[in-house]
């Protein structure tokens, strides 16, 4: 249940508390379109807010001071109704655009995250699956709050005060000065509280990722934990992390409530200052009633968007933290290799795969030390031959296969396919020419038919049945539509091996890699595989890693690997 250690990438607090993560806007063209729509709608909404305040103030002035007839107010009331209807339509349009942008970003981010994880896994640097599950699901889903609530309020908070101050200057410069001084107080308090809140959110996010990893590890190892009586200890850890997550969540909520209170207080005091200044000048006669009323109606609208943005900041922080985690994974993942083209198949007896002085070292928990698995390996696999590699456990046999598959690169030396270094190959194209049977057969929940054609989704039933017959799995042909559980529940270990062997052959590969294909199965199934092996290997290059002699004896050539080095050839049997 162990995995490679994960290193957290520290990000300066000043970077983390910026209101906008620009990397989010490079995800898709749809996000830039959404940002443009948000700015346009925000600008239009700001104009509607100012126009609504002016029209409402004018209407009230005409009713109470000018004493106009009700019939003369119809035009103003219609204009006022149109303005508020327009604001509703603008809000609806903004909401639709926000959710579409959020859905687009989430889809692309999940796709890029999984592709990056595949690259890292291929290089022997897998991430915690529980960590990834939390980030890819709950974390990325929290971006809805960022796009639909936080970002629009941020845009409105920038546009409405700016336009409002420009309009107020034309009617009352003193109030414009007061507004210009008090409006920046809200962003200042947002930053001060945000720095503190971000630390709490980071701790909370780390805890939920650890909790996800712990749950997945515990579920995977239930049988082992129960046998060794270690289940209660793991449950205690899950309980401790759950309790810690609860405390951190409540702490974050307290900060959110505190920030909401502070921002409301600042906005209220600022509005009161404007109201008092306006009221005193109305009383003194230096300011007319209509512009004064318009300013009083507009004042709360000026502070509201920034206040709401500060409140929504906490709701959006989870999504922003998840996005940063995704970007950390993406930035740590180099490209999967070049685009060299593998030459057409050469004639039998020529070099197909060649290891030249290859050394490979696995990273260890101690970053100052490494574990050498392969040491100066020189090995040629000729096209069309069946090569068997034998050796004790841990000698480096499976590592040879991992390097051929591109799941890692030699630390020193070179590995070439048809003379082309493997790090220059298009790995997807190269792997499409390989059939692989691993030590631990991977089966999905579905039918036997679904599992056999996993790597060849266009294969029909007759072709799948033919391949099952080819590998000697005649007993599985009548069960081709039978549903099996996750990891092959319902099939014997030998039948699972047969399914994975049939899956490998169905691809019609040039190279067949067999990693302990007969390990852990009964002697009868081993003999069935051996009897069908001539047909399976016909026209292919085969590399078999095995302990049992049942397939080794069929090899054209046998080499022994000992402590990461190739020893003297061990001979081979006839095909």
Protein model, in words:
It is built from 18 helices and twelve strands. It folds into two domains: 22-331, Up-down Bundle (ABC transporter transmembrane region fold), CATH 1.20.1560.10; 351-566, P-loop containing nucleotide triphosphate hydrolases (Rossmann fold, 3-Layer(aba) Sandwich). 60% of the residues lie in helices and 11% in strands. The longest helix has 54 residues, at 231-284. A six-stranded mixed beta sheet has the order 6-9-10-3-11-12, sandwiched between helices. Strands 2-1-4-5 form a four-stranded antiparallel beta sheet, covered by helices on one side. It has 575 residues and is of the alpha/beta class.
Compact summary:
The protein is an alpha/beta fold and 575 residues long.
Spans where pLDDT lies below 50 across 5 or more residues: 1-17, 344-350, 570-575
CATH topology type of the largest domain: ABC transporter transmembrane region fold
CATH class of the largest domain: Mainly Alpha
Order of helices and strands: HHHHHHHHHHEEEHEEHEEHHEHEHHEHEE
Largest sheet: 6 strands, mixed
Instruction: Please give the domain count.
Output: 2
CATH architecture of the largest domain: Up-down Bundle
Strand order of the largest sheet: 6-9-10-3-11-12
**Shape annotation:** elongated
From the N-terminal CA to the C-terminal CA, the straight-line distance is 40 Å
Let me know the number of strands. Answer: 12
**What is the gyration radius calculated from CA atoms?**
34 Å
Strand residues, percent: 5-15%
CATH superfamily of the largest domain: ABC transporter type 1, transmembrane domain
Mean pLDDT: 76
Helix content: 55-70%
């Amino acid at each position: 249940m162990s995995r490679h250690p994960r290193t957290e990438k520290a990000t300066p607090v000043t970077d983390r508390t910026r209101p906008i993560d620009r990397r989010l806007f490079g995800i898709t063209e749809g996000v830039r379109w959404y940002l443009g729509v948000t700015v346009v709608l925000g600008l239009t909404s700001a104009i509607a807010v100012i126009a609504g305040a002016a029209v409402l103030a004018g209407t009230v002035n005409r009713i109470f001071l000018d004493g106009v007839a009700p019939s003369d107010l119809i035009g103003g009331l219609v204009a006022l109704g149109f303005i508020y209807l327009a604001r509703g339509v603008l809000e609806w349009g903004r909401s639709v655009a926000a959710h579409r942008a959020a859905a687009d970003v989430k889809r692309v981010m999940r796709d890029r995250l999984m592709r990056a994880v595949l690259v890292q896994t291929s290089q022997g640097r897998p991430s915690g699956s529980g960590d990834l599950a939390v980030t890819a699901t709950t974390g990325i889903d929290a971006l809805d709050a960022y796009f639909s609530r936080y970002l629009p309020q941020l845009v409105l908070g920038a546009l409405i005060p700016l336009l409002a101050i420009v309009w107020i200057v034309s009617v009352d410069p003193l109030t414009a000065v007061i507004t210009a001084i008090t409006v920046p107080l809200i962003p200042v308090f947002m930053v001060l509280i945000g720095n503190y809140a971000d630390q709490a959110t980071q701790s909370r996010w780390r805890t939920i990722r650890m909790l996800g990893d712990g749950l997945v590890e515990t579920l995977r190892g239930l049988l082992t934990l129960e046998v060794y009586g270690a289940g209660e200890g793991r449950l205690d850890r899950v309980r401790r992390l759950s309790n810690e997550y609860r405390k951190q969540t409540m702490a974050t909520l307290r900060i959110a409530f505190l920030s909401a209170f502070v921002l409301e207080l600042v906005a209220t005091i600022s509005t009161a200052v404007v109201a008092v200044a306006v009221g005193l000048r109305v009383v003194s006669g230096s300011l007319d009633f209509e512009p004064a009323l318009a300013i009083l109606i507009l004042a709360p609208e000026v502070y509201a968007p920034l206040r709401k943005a500060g409140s929504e900041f906490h709701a959006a922080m989870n999504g922003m933290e998840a996005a940063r985690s995704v970007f950390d994974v993406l930035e740590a993942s180099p490209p999967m290799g070049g685009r060299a083209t593998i030459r057409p198949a050469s004639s039998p007896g020529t070099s197909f795969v060649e290891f030249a002085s290859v050394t490979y070292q696995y990273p260890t928990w101690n970053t100052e030390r490494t574990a050498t698995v392969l040491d100066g390996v020189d090995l040629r696999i000729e096209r069309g031959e069946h090569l068997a590699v034998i050796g004790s456990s841990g000698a480096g046999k499976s590592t040879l296969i991992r390097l051929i598959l591109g799941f890692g690169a030699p630390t020193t030396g070179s590995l070439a396919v048809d003379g082309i270094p493997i790090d220059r190959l298009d790995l997807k194209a190269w792997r499409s020419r390989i059939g692989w049977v691993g030590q631990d057969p991977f089966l999905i929940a579905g039918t036997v038919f679904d599992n056999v054609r996993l790597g060849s989704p266009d294969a029909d039933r007759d072709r799948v049945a033919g391949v099952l017959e080819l590998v000697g799995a005649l007993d599985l042909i009548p069960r081709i539509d039978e549903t099996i559980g996750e990891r092959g529940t319902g099939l014997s270990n030998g039948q699972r091996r047969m399914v994975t062997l049939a899956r490998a052959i169905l691809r019609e590969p040039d190279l067949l890699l067999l990693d302990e294909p007969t390990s852990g199965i009964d002697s009868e199934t081993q003999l069935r595989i051996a009897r069908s092996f001539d047909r399976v290997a016909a026209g292919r290059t085969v590399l078999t890693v095995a302990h049992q002699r049942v397939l080794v004896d069929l090899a054209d050539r046998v080499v022994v690997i000992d402590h990461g080095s190739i020893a003297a050839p061990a001979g081979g049997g006839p095909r």
